[in-house]
Amino acid sequence: FWQILVWDTFDLMKLDYVPSQTAHIACKYSDRWKSGTKVLCKETRPFVCKEIINTTQEAVGRFHIKDNKETNSFSVDIKNLTEADSGIYWCLSGKNEFVATELSEASHCRKESLAVGRFLKSKKNNMT
Q1: Which residue ranges form the domains of the chain, and what is each CATH number?
Q2: pLDDT tens digits, residue range 1-41?
Q3: Which residues does 125 contact at the CB level (< 8 Å), separation at least 6?
Q4: pTM of the full predicted structure?
């Protein structure tokens, strides 16, 4: 599990989807994290999220990840979407680099502000 700490404000991208279709989550990172492992996790409660997939894997179930080091970005496709896929996903690419995307069933995209901060990896048995 990952825990978000040291609060700040930044934009939360809202991404709407159609059930049974595929959602595409795009994540940017700086040059210094080019060689590091990138992670997508899903928020389980405010500012705590569970890792879904990382760039050492190609696919986990319906989740497929690609790291494009030329554009300093990685992306995750979630196939065959269901209502259970709704929620906030965090792209983690370095000690102080993260992006949040809220995935929900709707008809358009918009941005809102959300208080967030750094993430730190927590021990699984401490986070329930």
Answers
A1: 2-109 (2.60.40.10)
A2: 555 544 455 567 788 888 888 999 999 998 988 999 999 99
A3: none
A4: 0.73
